[in-house]
Specification:
By secondary structure, the protein is of the alpha+beta class. It has helices at 4-11, 50-56, 80-88, 112-117, 159-163, 181-184, 196-208, 232-235, 238-246, 267-282, and strands spanning 14-16, 27-29, 36-40, 43-48, 60-66, 71-79, 97-102, 107-111, 120-126, 133-136, 142-145, 150-153, 173-179, 214-215, 218-219. The chain is built from ten helices and 15 strands. Bound molecules: heme C.
Length: 294
């Protein structure tokens, strides 16, 4: 879970006065100075600030349907493919998965194929230069910081993207990593002899849950671990687990968890399959590696 105090600090332009022989004028620290890491299988490729990116990639204005706010928004943004070309070279096209790590612990893991079939952009400002924040309806109307980079999609004409909900739209992105899912998240995979239902549940969990939650120490650090050492299926009654997934605020007032998006086709079946996966993982506990917990 992100800490509201540190989040507020990101909004403030810290003013530091450095005094040596001469007192320098105040040094402004802002989103523009945050180093965004680009990695290829854990190796650092580059660290770029927004000011660096501005000199490398041409920004555009993009109108999108803002899923977190349920209204249209216009952002200033860099085309994702152009940014990947500049940072990784054409090699990124051969990668399998891209993991985006956010300052609040969110960890979106998105297949490269999605970037080839849809146009993604990294927003860095609102079109009208208003503060780069938003009121996130999906997160109990919290006001959240969006910078340094916010991954958005040209979704106005795409039913598929609108149905995907907000899980592939990480904000506060500070690290972008090329990888393969199996090597990056070995502890999340279901047991080898798992049923087809459990495997489908695993794919849904990958898509809708792991950006916030960990299983066996792997996944996002924005919400509680769900499997290790005690699984949620061991202490939450089945009907309540369904409600946690579909309507979290019916369990806990002011819950920061968004319910499974209403737009998802066969939503009840998806929930059932996610629970089948969680049950299978409750008998597949793997001790988290230290480096998994970031
Ligand atoms: C955007 C982040 C986010 C996403 C996505 C998310 N959750 Fe959560 N979840 C939370 C947070 C935060 C909590 C902590 C309780 C709260 O704030 O209400 C939580 C709590 C829970 C709990 C209760 C855990 C406990 O021990 O009390 C369960 C179970 C759960 N989530 C399951 C899921 C499943 C399954 C999915 C995918 C369908 C999912 N969550 C998607 C943020 C998220």
């Amino acid at each position: 879970m992100s800490n509201p105090i540190s989040r507020n600090f990101q909004n403030i332009f810290l003013t530091v006065v450095i005094c040596g022989n001469v007192c320098l004028p105040a040094l402004a620290f802002s989103q523009n100075n945050i180093g965004i890491e680009f990695k290829d299988k854990d190796q650092n490729v580059k660290v770029l600030t927004l000011s660096d990116i501005t000199t490398e990639v041409t920004a555009v204005s993009l109108k999108t349907f803002e899923i977190h706010e349920k209204k249209d928004q216009i952002y200033k943004a860099y085309p994702a493919r152009a940014l990947f070309d500049k940072t990784f070279g054409k090699g990124w096209l051969k990668a399998e998965e891209i993991v985006f790590i956010s300052m609040d612990g969110y960890q979106a893991s998105i297949p490269v194929t999605k970037f080839l079939s849809h146009d993604a952009y990294f927003a860095f400002a609102h079109h009208d230069n208003s503060p780069f924040t938003m009121t996130n309806i999906l997160q109990n109307n919290e006001v959240v910081q969006l910078g340094p980079l916010y991954l958005i999609w040209d979704n106005m004409k795409s039913k598929v993207l609108l149905e995907d909900g907000a899980s592939d739209m990480p904000y506060q992105v500070k690290s972008i990593e090329l990888t393969t899912f199996a090597t990056r998240f070995p502890n999340l995979s279901p047991p080898a002899k798992a049923s087809a239902e459990v495997r489908r549940g695993f794919l849904h969990f990958r898509k809708y849950c792991m950006a916030c939650h960990m299983i066996n120490g792997e996944g996002g650090g924005k919400a509680p671990e769900l499997n290790y050492p005690t699984s949620v299926v061991e202490y939450i009654k089945p009907e309540y687990l369904t409600r946690w997934i579909e309507n979290p605020s019916s369990i806990r007032h002011n819950s920061l968890m968004p319910g499974l998006a209403q737009e998802i086709l066969n939503r009840a079946k998806v929930t059932k399959e996610i629970i089948a996966y969680l049950k299978a993982m409750s008998t597949t506990k793997r001790s988290p590696q230290k480096q998994d917990i970031r």
